[in-house]
Amino acid sequence: MTGTSRTKVFISAQLLLFIVVVTVSLWFIDLRTRQRTFGLLLGTELTAFSMLLYVYRTSNRDKFNRSWLYLGCAALVGLLFLGMMV
Amino acid sequence: MRLFEVNTLSDKDFYDKIVDWFDVHFGFTKAPLKSVPEYVLNPVYWLGALMVAAFVLQAVTGFFQLIYYVPSPDQAYSSTTFVINSVPLGRLIETLHLYTAYAIILLAFMHLARNYFGSVHKERRELMWVTGVLMMFVVMGFGVTGYLLPWTVISKSATDVAIGFLNFLPSQLSTVARFLIAGTGSDASELQRFLHLHTVLLPGALIGLLVLKIYMYEVHGPCYVPAYGKGRSQIIPWFPRVFLYSFMIFSVFIASLLVVSSLFPLNLPPEFTPGAAGNYVVQPDWYLLCLYQILKFAAFEGPDAVFGLVAVGVFFIFLILLPFYDRSTKRDPGSRPVFVTVGAIVIAEFITLVVWGYLTPGQVISNLQAVAVTGGIALGVAAVSWLIFRARKHSLSTQPAAVPDNPHQSSSLVANSLRSLLRLRGYGKFTALFILLLAVASVFLSASVNMMPYVGTNVLFFCLALAATAFSTFLMTRMVKKLVLVYENGGVSA
Fold first, then answer.
1. d(Cα B51, Cα B395) in Å, to the nearest integer?
2. Spatial CA neighbour of A52 closest among B247, B50, B254
3. pLDDT tens-digit map of B4-55
4. Nearest 5°: phi and psi at B408?
5. How far out from the chain centre does Cα B29 lie?
6. For residue A19, which residues of chain B lie inside 8 Å, CB to CB?
7. What gap in Å lies between CA B369 and CA B389, rounded to an integer?
8. Distance (Å, rounded) from C-alpha B379 to C-alpha B445?
9. What is residue B223's DSSP assignment?
10. How many CA atoms, within 13 angstroms, populate the side-chain half-sphere of residue A22?
11. Beta carbons of B258 and A50 less than 8 Å apart
12. CB–CB of B343/B116 below 8 Å?
């Protein structure tokens, strides 16, 4: 495994970890009173999943655009914040 | 070392192993889906697929609602509010169902516009266009039938008005249509019939048309659209790249819907009762506001509504038959000034009528206002379109000839024209002044339109508003002309 491929695995592992953590938190949310939080966290999870697919959808010959990853990370943080606020 | 750059690997890495595992166990590469050119990995080519994803989401959320929904006038509203207030995730799912329906209709309009401006109805794809337009009608049918089901005061009143339009059909046809759509005429019958249309007939029709369209897509393949970027002709198999791309784009789409549904949850209007109906102005959902506004024109009031309906019907007939009279082989929008201008006018009129209808609920629009606004918009869009095509024509005469439909072409003609407009970025003051003039013209135009019914008492103000509009428009025209001259001189101010 080369260094760059390891980077790819590292990013994916972080995103997978994030997805697992959000899934666990979703499990403990009161679905009657915190529906908006649930929706926002589920949206966060799907965004992380799409980022994971973005990292892995390209073949090994291609580069991926770091701007999209930064934008995705900002979206994750923003949605998590909104999920906690509503 | 670039952080996100991945080098070529001679041996299989973790990614390849995952792909291989799925391929071995599911046989994705053997699926009967045609390999596609690489340029389809672009959201512009996925509007139809997003609609399919949204339709699946609608089926799931709709099934959840059907568990609790009681289709009777007495309990339809209470069963809906029960889901919203008492069922876990009920409000989120109701809201998601509503917003996904809006998203489907919006995507249908975007898909239609994309196909129209990209001329994808040519090259043996005529029936794909016809099928697509029919699917749009089915989608609108979903919206109309679903609107009634919660039995709110607004939805019931608006639906009754819509059913009333059936009276303008020839008497025999009207009777049959009323029976098919509204049943025997009672509220209970109407609600039952709308539920059946919404959950049985329309889904069946949509699935049938969808299967037909996907089949034709597989036969003809994706249609390269020169206007939407550089085409790369490398053919890629569905699995894994297109497969993963589709999941990625679907995830982003559903996440967006979830976020919007969570931030702006649904609040139902009051329940329908004959007494409550008198206190509300009847207004349809946003996608029908255009038709609603046209029927509010004084010329189409009362029994004359039939003329408005006939006009709208003729428009849709022209829309369906587009591939059969637009026989030119040219597909680049830059080579189709008439069709592009007509399309731009239709979009501008649609947006204007939707906003106007929303802002003037229940008001009858005088003929003078109707002609001034719709005619003004049409003339304005036509003038802008003419200027753009004029600039483009000049640029063509000074540049080597380009082949518009060649996927290997490095840049399309429309892209060149748009690039010329983007040079505005360097003209900060110019842009700011133009926006200011646009705002002034819009404000005074709306003021003069509003004063039209009382022009006898406010002649001076009316004339001043009209003069201010005309002067602002004149200045904007001069600015656009200067822009064209600058462009013609290769970016040097004349």
1. 38
2. B247
3. 444 444 456 666 777 788 878 877 776 667 788 888 888 888 999 999 999 9
4. -85, -5
5. 34
6. none
7. 30
8. 14
9. P
10. 26
11. no
12. yes
Question: Is the CB of B251 less than 8 angstroms away from the CB of A54?
Answer: no
Tokens at B491, concatenated: 């970016």
* CB-CB neighbors (< 8 A) of B240 in chain A: 57
What's the first-to-final CA gap in chain B, in angstroms?
48
Q: Do the beta carbons of residue B226 and residue B336 sit within 8 Å?
A: no
Q: Which of B415, B384, B385 is nearest to B399 (CA)?
A: B415
Give B230-282 as a DSSP string: -----EE-IIIIIHHHHHHHHHHHHHHHHHHHHHS---PPPBP-HHHHTTS--
DSSP class per residue in B365-434:
BPHHHHHHHHHHHHHHHHHHHHHHHHHHHHHHHHS----TT-TT-SS-HHHHHHHHHHGGGG-HHHHHHH
Please state the rounded mean pLDDT for residues B401-406. 47
ipTM of predicted assembly, 2 dp? 0.91
Q: Which residues of B393-422 are buried (b: 16+ CB within 10 A; e: fewer)?
A: eebbeeeeebebbeeebeebbbbbbeebee
Q: Which of B1, B96, B258 sits opposite A3 (nearest CB)?
A: B1
Question: Hey, is B220 helix, strand or coil?
Answer: helix
Q: Are the beta carbons of A63 and B6 closer than 8 angstroms?
A: yes
For A23, residues 6+ apart whose C-beta sits below 8 A from its C-beta are A45
Instruction: Evaluate whether B334 touches B392 at the Cβ level (below 8 Å).
Output: yes
Burial B87-117 (b: 16+ CB within 10 A, else e): bebbbbbbbbbbbbbbbbbebbbebbbbbbb
For A57-71, write each residue's pLDDT tens digit.
Answer: 765 555 677 888 899
Query: Could you tell me the two tokens for B239?
Result: 């699995």
Q: Give the whole-angstrom CA distance, residue A62 versus residue A8.
A: 12
Residue B152: strand pairing partners? B271
Six token digits for residue B104: 């489907």
